[in-house]
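Chapter review: from sequence to fold.
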Amino acid sequence: MKKNVGNADMWIRIILGVVIFALGIYYQSWWGILGVIPFATAFMHWCPVYLPFGISTAKKETENK
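The token string follows.
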């Protein structure tokens, strides 16, 4: 898997995942489990939704010669 999630995007996903999960606990709703999705994609640095659109927020890797 090629990384397509950058650092800023990663932190946004972590915060969003925690907020969704916390709201699910607060409202005692199973919807909070959806907070795992942005949290997981943040730590894998890979988002499957970005693939069909060719989006990448990750920095391009440069070759060292």
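Two observations follow directly from the output. DSSP finds two helices and no strands in the chain. The CA atoms of residues 25 and 61 lie 39 Å apart.
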